[in-house]
Amino acid sequence: MLLLGAETMDLTEVLAHYAEHGWARLGRVATDDVLGQLRARADAIMLGEVTYPGLFFQIDAPTGDYDDLTYGKGYEGPSLDYRKVEKLELDPLYRAWLENPLFGRVARAVIGEHGIALYRAVLFSKGATGGSNLPWHQDAGAFWGLDRDPHLQIWTALDDVPLESGAVEVVDGTHARGLATPLGGVVPDNLLAKYGAEAAAMPLPATAGEVLLIHNHVWHRSGKNRTGRPRRALTVCYMDARTKCQRKRRAPREFVKLFTSK
Ligand SMILES: O=C(O)CCC(=O)C(=O)O
After folding, report:
1. Whether residue 262 has pLDDT greater than 70
2. Which residues lie with the beta carbon below 6 Å from any ligand 1 atom?
3. Fewest CB atoms within 10 A around its CB: which of 57, 148, 206, 259?
4. Span 53-63, pLDDT tens digits
5. Which H or E run includes 193?
6. Rounded to an integer, what distance in angstroms lies between the CA atom of residue 231 and that of residue 220?
7. What is the 119 CA–ligand 1 centroid distance (Å)?
């Protein structure tokens, strides 16, 4: 699945950059073959040709506005306009990709040696019709219901993701300030203004097969897709295997352990 040499690449500079800036480029590591397969599988899942009980879907708002998204509806029939598909670890192809040995090395180096668990494996898709914007946010906090915040997401571009397709943008270094609010999620406007997020926005365009590391606390967002072509990316949140789910209303979640056979 990995390009020649990717599995053993030197991670020293990548990890130092990640620690300082809250994001880093791992470079192009996926083969054309695996990218083609992942894209085809994404379409097959959205079109209902491949199904797994437990997959989570969210369709895009017809207006393309984040504020108009609807929640809790799940699969709404065949469409390439799903914004999010979650629990992709249920699919053997996606599972093999998120468990590739290079990601294992990165996860162990960033998270430590107590074992790695999966919080989520999500396709973020912006269809050819435009998708929607995703506002400045952090991926952690009370909203995630964990006893500690995860701090590693590995993002793979399945298509070319130039700026005009809704590339990920970050406010460099914001991970160092921790959570903007205890709840996590969308960063409030007053803090965006206080820290000059708009002026500081740093786009991270990527070509298909490129991989980014994105710290859960770094402020990040993505815009609408203006290319007329699909813009799909897989983001996988890895965490320390000792992390516990703290939700009380339902049975606590058990998290899939990764890289156990390596
Ligand atoms: O790809 C995107 O548009 C969003 C990515 C993101 O928010 C993430 O990886 O946490």
Report:
1. no
2. 124, 134, 139, 153, 155, 168, 214, 220, 222, 233, 235
3. 148
4. 999 999 998 88
5. helix 189-194
6. 17
7. 14
